[in-house]
Amino acid sequence: MKDFAGLYAELDATTSSNAKLAAMQAYFAQAAPQDAAWAVYFLSGGRPRQLVPVRILRELAVEVSGLTPWLFEESYQAVGDLAETISLVLPENPHTSEAGLAQWIEDKLLPLRGETPDYLSRQLPLLWAQLDRPSLMLCIKLITGSFRVGVSKLLVTRALASMAGLDSKRVAQRLVGYTDLSNRPDAASYLKLIAPESSDEHAQRGGQPYPFFLAHALAQPVEQFEALLGPASHWQVEWKWDGIRAQVVKRDGRLWVWSRGEELVTERFPELDSLVHGLPDGTVIDGEIVVWKTARPSTEDAFDPQSSAPPAVQPFALLQQRIGRKTLDKKILEEVPVVVLAYDLLEWQGEDWRNQPQARRRTQLEQVIARCNNPVLLPSPVLTGEDWFDLARQREASRRLGVEGMMLKARDALYGVGRTKDMGVWWKWKVDPFSVDAVLIYAQRGHGRRASLYSDYTFAVWDGPPESSQRALVPFAKAYSGLTDAEMREVDSIVRKTTVEKFGPVSSVKPSLVFELGFEGIALSRRHKSGIAVRFPRMLRWRQDKTVDEADSLATLQDLLA
Amino acid sequence: MDLVIARPEGLYCPAGDFYIDPWRPVERSVITHAHGDHARTGNGHYLASSASEGILRARLGQDINLQTLPYGQRLTHQGVTLSFHPAGHVLGSAQIRLEYGGEVWVASGDYKIEPDGTCAPFEPVRCHTFITESTFGLPIYRWQPQAQVFAEINQWWQANIALGKASVLFCYSFGKAQRILHGIDETLGPILSHGAVEPLNRVYRDAGVYLPPTLYAGDVKKNDPLLRQALIIAPPSAGGSSWMRRFGDYSDSFASGWMRLRGTRRRRGVDRGFVLSDHADWPGLLWAIEQTGAERVMVTHGSIGVLVRHLRERGLDAQGFNTEYGDDEEDNTTAEPAIAEVQP
Ligand SMILES: [Zn+2]
Ligand SMILES: [Zn+2]
Fold this sequence. Notes:
The complex is a heterodimer.
Chain A: H1 2-13, H2 17-30, H3 33-43, H4 54-65, H5 69-79, H6 82-89, H7 101-109, H8 117-128, H9 133-144, H10 153-164, H11 168-175, H12 187-194, E1 216-217, H13 225-229, E2 235-240, E3 244-251, E4 254-259, H14 275-278, E5 283-291, H15 299-302, H16 316-324, H17 330-335, E6 338-348, E7 351-352, H18 358-372, E8 377-379, E9 382-383, H19 388-395, H20 398-401, E10 405-410, E11 426-430, E12 434-445, E13 454-462, E14 473-479, H21 485-498, E15 499-503, E16 506-509, E17 514-519, E18 521-524, E19 532-535, E20 538-542, H22 554-561
Helix pairs in contact in A: 1-2, 1-9, 2-10, 3-7, 3-12, 5-6, 6-9, 10-11
Chain B: E1 5-7, E2 10-13, E3 18-20, E4 28-30, E5 45-49, H1 53-60, E6 66-69, E7 74-77, E8 80-86, E9 94-100, E10 103-107, E11 129-134, H2 146-163, E12 166-170, H3 176-183, E13 191-193, H4 198-206, E14 215-216, E15 231-234, E16 250-255, H5 262-268, E17 272-274, H6 282-292, E18 296-302, H7 304-313, E19 317-320
Parallel strand pairs in B: 3-4, 4-5, 5-6, 10-11, 11-18, 12-15, 12-16, 13-14, 13-15, 16-17, 18-19
Antiparallel strand pairs in B: 1-2, 2-3, 7-8, 8-9, 9-10
The site of one zinc ion has 7 residues of chain B, from loops.
């Protein structure tokens, strides 16, 4: 436990990938296999369900710390993370537990699930008292299922691969499904991850999917596309769906559906069961599960940018509601039906097709879908444009169509692993990938045509949650585009009426106006008071429906950093 | 009658007609310590502890109208008996004890409980009313013994030497910087100071505080192999500036009480955060308040609301004073313009 807490602290303390890699390698080199098994599980995103209700944890923390409930609450507000708060207010103890990570998880923590409050309030303080502060925080994060640390699965894969002297694609392949809830990590499963390569390993068995190939964000202005990417004709362009990325695996007469989190979700989508008949054995399809309302027969019609008909793809929130259900009754299946929008073919006739060029995989995919002839399996349409500018124009329909933008895939590229870039790149060209609701606090008169208007604004977000009484607005971005002239005149007149102080051309105003601000990128910055710098900020819309108190906080921006 | 009240100019003693740490220029000021948010320019007359004279003149100007008093020695002004008592915060920092008509008030300024060897340690002073700061007034703030923190800094520095990297440690240039210099293991490698830190080192050395030899960072050439073993002490404002370029491959860290929280550590964006503060932690604040025996407590800058409520629940008569003091644990450059950089 202490070693893993040490690793967590190291990973948490640095932003450098090399340092993270080195820390993981050092950890795995000395960890017992059963502990390493759980470490891999947590580092690559595995999360057992919550073991103890949060309410009980809070009550117990208040009791053991001897604080009044309000003082605990104030502390929590200041820290923002429950596990960390508890670890900071409980009495500090020397670390006395010799037990490793596996023993902690299997013998001490997992058995807590479903226990009575009485038992928990006797048992938890005994466990806590054995741990030093870093281990205690980690322990509570594991209990609440909120363990997160800034390492990608790719990085975990690289750490294991370099330690075991394996190709990291091989390790990635073995890791697929490792964090699925049905899998319980143990020494044997860890040793399998790092075992020398066997001769029959390339042959796929059972329902194993392939590691997903993940896209990178493209934030450059369209004017640079030609120089960056070459002509648009070299690219396969599709809509970027807001659904659940999934692989449909058909082998040995059975069908498996895997989500991008490498969770087996077959049972969540019973309407896909029928694909078991239409798809031949040895077929793996990559695509997106979306909620689909079929007013229209084909995807081409539904996504014709010229079409004014309502789109057939439904908001992600609907899909989320459906996933949240414990049981799927007939009514839900009728009201929230899903389809797979297929965009790639990873295996065909039992052969790994990932090393085939994108265009070839696409052609074959279309044939597979046509032969399958099942309305729950539709091709994600390929978009064509004369050039990048033409595509940019089509992309403007994204919001109306309920998609997030476009995907760009080089026609000759192979299908990579995770976020690799060496086999070709998938770009996600999103519309306004980031947005927050911010408060206008300074206004400046513009230049040229806008010289008489207050047209350049400084926006701020809150530095604390709504409950905190002493929170203040922190400026984080300037923007001057995005409003219509009429809106700008209206804002101008409000600025004149609410000016508090003037500094030359700049006025500070009484905070009253909220805008949705979009931007293309976000990074840490020491030069900004907010600690954050955003790229290409612009106003998306004036949120006249929101009060200043409802604007976002710095925490929202910090979350986007991940 | 209250011996001290809050006025727009600062904390004011009506009986003696003077201000304590005023934030606007006044005729008579009594200064707890030389941090920029407590000691400002423009006052007609300054009264401060003898130990703070060097630093006050260095920051506010050699020619300020300054009168000093050794710790513990009393002075009576318009019937108010006034004395300074060590606050353990930075060199020369003092609590101000006021006595008038049998009433005793103590204004703490900023204070720290753990002795650090660079200034006279905090001494509790009995009083009826205690004016306390509350910078770290939440139970999440509890400090480790400083020896442990220095051990962590030494380890980090050593690990960087092993990797051939410079070690840049950001901290407040007055007080924290000298405390770190005094506490670290000087045998590990050469120590460099930023131009904002070096003049303050000189003041500490003149006051008889031992600091290891330091080189002025501006004297060391870019790519000098010495840098790969060096510890560089710099103010937070130097981070991200072009000044950093000379260090090539470096690891950076930040020393402050705020580093206790993971979120602030991550937001700071440095490789390491060391939890080291020149203010009292939560148990320290409560201990200090208890030691004074005061029944009335006025709470200034920090977590005023929290500390007031907590003290009231413990049966004390507590209330908040709104002040314009800043946060000397942060990169508060606006409050800190007062000392010139050494010219290379
Ligand atoms: Zn101070
Ligand atoms: Zn202060």
